[in-house]
Structure formats: C-alpha cells, structure tokens
Give the backbone structure.
Amino acid sequence: MNSMSEAVHFTPDDERMLLDAIDNWVEKSVRPIAREYDHADKYPVELVEEMKSLGLFGATISPHYGGLGLPASTYAKIVIKVSSVWMAPTGIFNSHLIMAVAIERFGTEAQKQKYLPRMATGELRGGIGLTEPDCGTDLQAIRTVAKKDGDHYLINGNKIWITNSGNGGMILLLVKTDPTAQPRHKGMSLFIAEKGPGFIVSNKMKKLGYKSIDSCELAFQDYRVHEDCLLGGLEGKGFQQVAGGLELGRINVAARGAGIAEGSLKLALRYAQERKTFGKPICEHQAIQLKLGEMASQVEASKLLVDHAARAYDRGERCDMEAGMAKYFASEAGVFCSQEAMRIFGGASYSVEYEIERFYRDAMLMCIGEGTNEMQRIIIAKQLVARNPA
C-alpha cells in the first residue's frame, strides 16, 4: 500500500484551505522573484525556507514520520498551482519526495526513523541519483559500482543531471552491486548516500530552462558508505525500488506540464484581451480564438489525466500506465500551449520582459525528464495489452 493512501481525516475543506494557502504563497513569494531568479540562474534560498514552513518537504511523507501525509491527488494540485507561475521550484521538493517515498516504502524501520523526520522538515534534503553520462532511460546500463568492503561498500562512478545534489545533503544512489548479474536489474541496488569524503559535486549544469535549480554532475571516488545505508538491507532490489518512486515522479512531471500549460493559457488570454490589431483586441480574431480554444481543452484534459493517475496511486494500485498517460499528454500539452502562447504574443514573446518565454524554455524538459515520452507510449501500450488479453 502506498504511504499516500494512509492519509487520514483529510477532507475537501482541508484541501481547499491548503490550496488557498499555496495560492497566497505563490502570489506573495514565488511570482515576484521568478523572472529575476530564472534569468540569474540563482538558487532560491529564501523560498526554500518558506517551503519548509509550509511543510512542502514533508508533503507526502506519513504523519507517523512528521510529514503531512497528503494524498497524491492533492499533492498534484499543489504542483500545478506552483508550476502555473514558475515550474522550477517544484523540482526542489519533487526529487526530495521521490527519495522519501522510496525510503518509506522499502527502507528498514531504522532507516525510516533516521531519515524521514529530518526530511519532512526540510532539514535534510535529498534527490535521486540515477542518470549517468551514457545512461538515461535505460537504467540497467548504469556503470557506477559498489563493492563490499567489510561492513561498508566502496562506490565508484559518475552521475549527471542530479537535482538537489548541490544544495541538498544526500541522494538515493543507484549502483551495480553485481555487474555480472543476468538479467541486469538483479545486480542493482540503492544506497542512501549522504555527502562525505569521495562524494564529489563536480559541476553545476548550464541549462536552457529549469534554471535556479542545482542540476549537477557527481563523481564518486572510493566513496565509503555503511551497509546500513543499503535501502531495505538487501542487494539486488534497486531497480524495482526506484521504479515505484518514479510513479510519483511521473505524476509530478505530469502536474508540472499541466501547470505550464495552464500558466501559458492565462498569460496568452490576458495578452489577447489587451493587445489590439485592426481596431479590436486580438482575442476577437478567429485565428486567436482557435488557439485559445485548443489550449483550454488541453489544459483541462491534462488536469483530469493527472488526477486520474494520482487517485490510482492513492488507492495503492499499480499505475504505471495511468502515470505514463498523464505524463505523456500533460507534458506535450505544456509544450503545445507555451508554443501557441508565443505565437499569440507575437514579437513580444521574444522579449525577456514577458514571462511567456520562460514557460516556453521550461516546457520541453517535461517531455524528456522522468522517462522520455517515447518510452511512456511504449509503457502504455505494453500495459494496455497486458491488461486486455485476447
């Protein structure tokens, strides 16, 4: 059963009050700094402190360990709201919560007690260390290796594009404990890796979009970690353990895509009512109306797919197909709506004085991150066949 499904006494009124608080925070703290921080690629330190106060770092962690225990359906609505103004901050707590979900689902009780309470407050922030220079979607091709050394492991290898690795304190690190295992996934394990000697943050990546977030390259050189940090205490379970956490990650990315789509629509709708050509607002021109109508439909469809996947997750059901559908459709909607908004803004869209250019730059990442959309369609098709045998 997912920890999400263990949330108790969370009523529609509770959700409404929480979302109102998030709305107020977004307008008061997020919107005013988004353009400046994005352009400067500056980490939002003060915003992170406010996220701690709001409980966002413990959003989906069980109340038993100090978190809010929010259902995924509510969590997704929070992500949509934030992303409709500035997508990047959602990455700070999303990667952290994927790690927390994996620990809560698969960790030993000692690991849960040691890490989850500090993760819930944001005192200890984490991420997931999966991608390598020669390995993205095909996780079984990783080359980072952990070798047993008494009651410790020595880890050597490299990771890339790891969110929260610069300003965070630890990552959930995917390695090969048995590089010769067949099938390959049986030789993969996860470690709770706190920063220390041999854990080297070597470079902050320069990016087109998704700025202000520390996506870094990591090097592990004889990094020594105690066997107590092996997630669940068993080798060879890492691939299955990380797959469970990615369901939540894909719901988050889907929510980000829906948020980008909604934010783009709102900006375009306002501009279309203010901008005039040929003696009338451009929203009265049929060509613009066609764009707005399609954008609005994709926004609402995206939000429904996100909610459908999140509710399946909350029920503890297998939802890789539902999460894949939501992630695929909503991320593509984000790209579509941001592009259409750029067209509606016309030449003004290329000015950094308008917010829409940030939405355009951020959108494409959602089609790539947490598993490419090409891979999502394959997952959807395979699950469709498996669930509907001839």
About this structure: Residues 126 and 299 are 31 Å apart (CA to CA). The chain is about 50% helix and 15% strand. The longest strand covers residues 152-163. The two ends are 30 Å apart (CA to CA).
